[in-house]
Amino acid sequence: AWAGPEIPPKDETPIARRHIRRQRSFTMQATNKPTPTASSSFGGISGPAHASNLSFYDDLPSSDVALDDFEEFAVARLKVLRRIDVLQAHGTAGEKFAADVARADRENLPVRRATFAADRTRDAVSHFALRMAYCRTEELRRWFLKSESRLFAVRFAAASPAEADAFLEAHGLRYAPIGAAERERLRAPLTAASGGSPAGPPSAQQFERTRYYRVPFAEVTGLVGRRDVYIEGGCAYVPHDKISVRIEERFRASLSKSLTAAFKRSATIERDARVAPLVKILGRVAFKYGGQAGPSTGGTDHETVVRTFTDYLSSIGHSEPKSKPAGVSKYYISVGTRKPNEKDKTCPIAGRVHKSNTQKYTVFLDTHVMMQGCWDGECQATKRNVFYQIRDGKCHKVGWTPPPVGPLCPDVKAETVKSHSQAAIFGGL
């Protein structure tokens, strides 16, 4: 029985029709068999027994995604990639780097056995959402590729042996781990081959914990050339930490190709009124998360919007306006953070000067509106705010009533992106 989404009209894109056929076949199988796990879509990990977040992101998300979730998932992944960027800028490396990245990953993109399918979908949607935003310029593609590759490397290194082996097998990388008996037989040459590393030969405990894989030597010629592996019978015996380099190279090559394809099909995204505004804003705030979005294409770029409001606040007497991002489409501006003056403490809602700085400003990038509020409890209870808006390049005080502007995604903010539409959205990525 057909239990999938409604089939789109004939004038729907070929990408959407192909996705419908894939989704239709999958659903028909699901009606006759037990509900499949995420393994068929995300790297072959066989169900929640392996709560793994390893993926090459070869397959598009097929579940429904609300636009609010789309934005939330993208920002969550940006936080992880930004953490990678900050750690690299500070020169952090080794175990501390891996531990800090893994902690950020768990906090923002957790994969738990109890909610395995939902968490894997969240991870996939967040990746494809950022792939849309970061495919538009060479600089963005380079930053996204580097950060995603480092995240993948950390995830693979932290995976359990069962998760790593299942992932390798699912992607045709049939690198068989050697058994305990063979490892003991080869203890001396394997230890000697590891002696050329900066850390020197492994200790007895390190050797016992290390997993070795038997790999055709032609696939790891770089390691062979550096004499980092032991060769016997046409196979190289590669430790786990070095096999991850090979897997990361494959991930990087696959993602690089996908980013190029995404850029060529970016017009498909721009035609979808639901996600196009979100994707554009993600690109505009990219520099706050480690990349450069490049020049704005139409309208006023976000830096100009924020600077216009901070300059206005300075011109009316506020001290030291400072801005920081608050998600994809908002900024917060604080004033008088070190030594507030009388203007910083003057509250139009209460009509008096507070004892401390209580004024807060929220900038909405999509509508070029700034809202002034107050942290004081009595003022918050009034639910009153003062609004400002940029018109003709200048900031104007609007008053107590919000200016007449539309939402970020008119009439579709609460709408759900259906499966057949997702193919048009994610097509070619």
Descriptive notes:
This protein has 429 residues and is an alpha+beta fold. It is built from 17 helices and 14 strands. The strands form 4 sheets. Strands 6-7-10-11-12-13 form a 6-stranded antiparallel β-sheet. A 4-stranded antiparallel β-sheet has the order 2-3-5-4. The protein has a two-stranded antiparallel sheet with strand order 1-14. β10 (359-364) and β11 (369-374) form a beta hairpin. α2 (67-89) packs across α4 and α5 (138-158) runs antiparallel to α11 (240-264). The longest helix has 25 residues, at 240-264. The chain is elongated. The protein starts with 13 loop residues before the first helix and ends with a helix.
Task: Supply the key terms.
alpha+beta, disordered N terminus, 13% strand, 6-stranded antiparallel β-sheet, elongated, 429 residues, 4-stranded antiparallel β-sheet, 17 helices, single chain, 14 strands
Oligomer state equals single chain
* Rg for CA atoms: 26 Å
Strand content: 5-15%
Contiguous helical run count: 17
Structural class category? alpha+beta
Annotation, overall tally of beta strands: 14
Helix content: 40-55%
Mean pLDDT: 75
Strand order of the largest sheet: 6-7-10-11-12-13
Identify the overall geometry.
elongated
Q: Which spans have pLDDT < 50 for at least 5 consecutive residues?
A: 1-49, 286-299, 406-425
Distance between the termini: 30 Å
Sketch the major β-sheet.
Answer: 6 strands, antiparallel
